[in-house]
Design brief:
about 120 residues, alpha+beta, 3-stranded mixed beta sheet, globular
Length: about 120
């Protein structure tokens, strides 16, 4: 089984100019812990997870107007859609991350998260 069989296709990508407040609201409303950040050509430029935002909130700042670019990871661990589920699980574990974009030629096709893997393995 590959991750394209279990990845989330209905994600909402962020733009680097979206605010931290926007990102947290989108994640909360959609019950996800992480989202990809794309440029105007829909190419992956970053990744943000709630933990990044929570660390940012500890710092004094301008939560409502700070761009997500200030918080996002710019070196993003991603996976191709034909990667096996077990390889994706190992990648998440090895890099201590909770979610990663599924990417082909820089374009985000979906997201794979720890929750997706737990659902998959609990049904096996």
């Amino acid at each position: 089984m590959t991750i394209k069989d279990i990845m989330q296709n209905d994600f909402i990508p962020l733009k680097a100019t979206d605010t931290v407040e926007d990102a947290l609201k989108i994640m909360t409303d959609n019950k996800v812990n992480g989202l990809p950040v794309v440029n105007d050509d829909n190419l992956l430029v970053g990744m943000v997870v709630k933990a990044d935002i929570y660390r940012f909130l500890i710092q004094p700042g301008h939560y409502k107007v700070s761009p997500i670019d200030w918080v996002m990871a710019k070196k993003v661990i991603s996976a191709p859609p034909d990667e096996t589920v077990s390889a994706a699980a190992k990648k998440l574990l090895d890099h201590h991350i909770i979610a990663m974009p599924v990417v082909v030629e820089g374009k985000v096709l979906g997201m794979i998260s720890i929750e997706d893997l737990l659902k998959y393995y609990s049904q096996a």
